Amino acid sequence: MADDTSATDGTDADRPVHASEVEGRQYRGTWYCPLPYDELERAPDTTDYPDRGTGGALRLAELPRVPRVRHVVGPSAIMLGASLGSGETLFWPGLIARHGWAIYWAFVVGVFTQFVVNTELQRWTLATGESVFRSYVRVNRAWPWVFLLAGLLSLGWPGWAAGAAQVAATATGLAGTTLLGFPAWKPLAVALLLVVWLSYQVSSVAYNAVEAFQIGLLFVAIATALVLAVASGAVAEVGSLPTAVTGVGTLPPEMDVAVFLGGLAFAGAGGYLNLSQSLWAREKGYGMGNYQGRVRNPFTGDDPEPIRRDGFTFRATALNLQRWRGWWRVIQVEHLLTFVVGLLLVATVLMAVARRHAPGADANALDMWLGTIAPSLGGLGALLVFVLLFVALFTTEYAIVESFVRNSADAVYETFARDAGWDLSRLFWWLLTGFTVWGVVVILLFSAPLGTCGPFLLLVVGAALSGVMMWPYTVLTLLVNTRRLPEHLQPGWSRLVAMWWASGFYGYFSVLLIGQTAAAAGVDGVGTSVGVVGSGPGGYALWVGYALVQAYAVVRSVGAKRAASGTVAALAGR
Predict the structure, then answer these.
(1) In angstroms, rounded to a whole number, what is the distance separating the alpha carbons of residues 376 and 378?
(2) What is 227-291 written as a DSSP string?
(3) What are the φ/ψ torsions at residue 60 (nearest 5 degrees)?
(4) What is the H or E stretch that residue 561 is in?
(5) C-alpha angle 273/122/409, rounded to 5°?
(6) Burial 35-57 (b: 16+ CB within 10 A, else e)
(7) Backbone angles phi, psi at 178, to 5 degrees
(8) In percent, how much of the chain has pLDDT > 70?
(9) CA nearest to 461, candidates 161, 97, 80, 91
(10) What CA–CA distance (Å, rounded) separates 268 from 313?
(11) Under a CB-based contact definition with an 8 Å cutoff, are residues 127 and 287 in contact?
């Protein structure tokens, strides 16, 4: 059992920091450790504990013992799956093929920026067992609705399922034919969405099915990418990587800002998808999330597991502080080795293949792969391209369905449905079914697959919206983690600087995109320029707003860090 709150005999020195091998293996699926919630002591409203904001008091429990990294791999693997078919297959290979390695720096910066943001999104959950949406509700109930709406606009289009179906149709010779009275790709895309829906019915815990399917698909994708790198001769392109250093901080003058911002957002999963990192950490049982229930299949007959409105926290004892530092190292290493290394490996291989076999390509990415690269390789190379594209696009569509449904269910539950007496597991299932039906309708209404400008344009718009969305939630997460958490749970100063960078990074490109989109629509007075100088009057107003938001984030987070300094006695002897 993860909890040792009853272990009152003996000192902290007698109680281990790390989980045993047997206990650690419990995390390989998901682990829920129920506690007698109503009997637990309420955390006092003092500086030693998280600020409850507009919510209720957290309950006191011991921080669970720390498992090894190999026992908790999962959430970041799903995030990697969400990334493969977006930036790593569609956006960045196309950008590198068109503009060369001089913009590779932006991909690397984007990946490491998302590493910081994604791990910070887990901090509140690790410390309290509450989701990131619950932390936002403690600030203002409107925030989850804002991100839900932005998520619908950016992810509500089943373009990746359509893309995977187009790949399958091309590989099987069905492209241009009809099936069941529809273009062949449409029934195939519908079938893929139904496969995703059906996969949730094979496990009593929704997360377990997703993790197992995604990890299996990732092994296929990574192995295929490595073989493709050798078979296509793309390994030789690695020698061109040093040229990326000379282009750091610069963009080609012909670069489309919307596409570039989409690429930044999808240098990783991006946008609404990233918020799922908190929920997957809770489902996996990270930290205090071990005491929260899991979303279960409501039709398997199992008893529901409670997900408490007000989560848990722990006393700042020497033992708990050692465990906290251990947990924080574990989630960073898990995310680094799975998400960051996986992205850099697979994405760089795909960029090298694209640059070698389609230099200067100006078609959209899927046409580039199917119409230029696959035919030029032929034989085994073409087969590898088809397999890799199909798996990458399908894993992304799977992760998008999972992420959108899980995020939206939690956002609705925390802002409305909990008080209305709804069950989270049933809400999750109905949203899953509704989102699947919506995807089927959208696919059948499209007159052309992803390879034409219509749906692909929607993906570019969705990607750009994802990038814009990351600015406010990065700022909000920074403020929650500094102003709501006590000294021993707050991010350190280096993390603070990294989050300032992240919010400034996404904010800058968001303002640039908003202004240039307005100018393209004929509102020249709101236009923005890359160097700020030369923007229209409204554009300058946007830049001033950007500067004010950034200044507010910096001042409030610094103030919170200074105010918390020295307030937790247990840290004095650290």
Answers:
(1) 6
(2) HHHHHTTGGGGGGGTTHHHHTTT---TT--HHHHHHHHHTSSS-GGGGGHHHHHHHHHT-GGGGG
(3) -90, 135
(4) helix 537-564
(5) 50
(6) beeeeeeebeeeebbbebeebee
(7) -115, 155
(8) 88
(9) 91
(10) 31
(11) yes
Please state the separation of Cα 466 from the chain's center in Å. Answer: 11
SS3 487: helix
Amino acid at site 425: S
- Facing residues of 59 across strands? 42, 312
Token pair 């490491």 is at which residue?
Answer: 112
Short-list 106, 93, 105, 85, CA closest to 359: 93
Could you give phi then psi for residue 521, rounded to 5 degrees?
Answer: -85, 5
CA-closest candidate to residue 130, choices 308, 324, 321, 327? 308
Structure tokens at 238: 């690695």
**For residue 11, what is the DSSP state?**
-
Cα–Cα distance for residue pair 177/519, rounded to 1 Å: 41
Confidence of residue 455 (pLDDT cuts 50, 70, 90): very low
Which H helix or E strand runs over 429?
helix 424-445
Show Cβ contacts of residue 541 under 8 Å, excluding neighbours closer than 6 positions: none
Question: Using CA atoms, how far apart are residues 211 and 207, in angstroms rounded to an integer?
Answer: 6
pLDDT value at position 9? 43
Angle at 282 between CA 306 and CA 25, to 5 degrees: 105
Hey, what are 388's tokens?
């890799």
Residue 570: pLDDT band (50, 70, 90) is low
For the stretch 59-82, pLDDT in tens is 999 999 999 999 999 999 999 888
Element (H, E) at 23: helix 21-25
Predicted TM-score of the model (pTM): 0.89
Displacement of CA 322 from its chain's centroid (Å): 28
In single-letter form, the type of residue at position 266 comes to F
CB burial string 187-210: b at 16+ within 10 A, e below: bbbbebbeebbebbeebebbbbbb
Cα separation of 489 and 481, whole Å? 8
Length of the chain: 574
pLDDT at position 154 over 90: no
Residue 91 tokens, joined: 């956006």
| Burial classification of residue 562, based on how many CB atoms lie within 10 Å of its CB (0-12 exposed, 13-18 middle, 19 or more buried) | exposed
Residue partners of 536: CB distance under 8 A and separation at least 6: 515, 519, 524, 525, 526, 527, 528
CB burial readout 352-388, b (16+ within 10 A) else e: bbbbbbbeebebbbbbbbbbbbbeebeeebbbbbbbb
How far apart are alpha carbons 440 and 197 in whole angstroms?
Answer: 12
> Given this model, what pLDDT does residue 144 score?
96
Q: Which residues contact 339 (CB under 8 A, 6 or more apart)?
A: 76, 79, 80, 83, 114, 115, 118, 268
User: What's the half-sphere exposure (Cβ side, CA atoms, 13 Å) at 505?
Assistant: 25
